[in-house]
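Model it.
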Amino acid sequence: MMYEIHTSAKAKILADSEDMKKFIDNSASGKFIKLKQGIVNPNHVVAIVEAKDQSEVKVESLGYMDYDRNVYVKTGTKVTSSLKDIFAESEVYKQLTQ
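Modeled.
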């Protein structure tokens, strides 16, 4: 999933899931955050919206290595596709919900 970060200067910076996690984890510091598409001052962000014409879904294979049989045993997949999912994985959310 791709997102647009809108700033008070009307700039739009595209961010993928990895950039959004980085933004969420570091936004409380108030310091500049370097993303793939640019540098963001979190104090000047006015909105974060889903980029409608962009799509990215993170699919992670879950499993373990069975060294006795020398094979990887796949137990499932994890799909992260929404800002809510990304925020839930962030350190900030984990600290707030403890």
